[in-house]
Amino acid sequence: ACSELSQTSCDECLRNVSCLWCYTNKTCVDYPVRSVLPPSSLCSLPKARWGVCWLNFEDLIIAIAVVAGLLLVSTAACCCYCCYCRR
């Protein structure tokens, strides 16, 4: 289904959440769900778009990792405060 949207636009392709847009050759491909990251043979991470066109896959992974790290640190800080500082 995604391959039918090739040679259209990134916005058209990403309306379907199971599609991945590659800027290298302007193709819309099915997201490889068996692997967490799309293989470089399909599209390099800086040129791959998934979800939104203005954020490449590499930056998306970094942003998710930063948010997850902040949540982990803030949870640990709250636990330490509740367990040790309130005594």
From TrEMBL:
<dbReference type="InterPro" id="IPR052304">
    <property type="entry name" value="PTTG1IP"/>
</dbReference>
<protein>
    <submittedName>
        <fullName>PTTG protein</fullName>
    </submittedName>
</protein>
<keyword id="KW-0472">Membrane</keyword>
<keyword id="KW-0812">Transmembrane</keyword>
<dbReference type="GO" id="GO:0005737">
    <property type="term" value="C:cytoplasm"/>
</dbReference>
<feature type="transmembrane region" description="Helical">
    <location>
        <begin position="60"/>
        <end position="84"/>
    </location>
</feature>
<dbReference type="GO" id="GO:0006606">
    <property type="term" value="P:protein import into nucleus"/>
</dbReference>
<dbReference type="GO" id="GO:0005634">
    <property type="term" value="C:nucleus"/>
</dbReference>
<keyword id="KW-1133">Transmembrane helix</keyword>
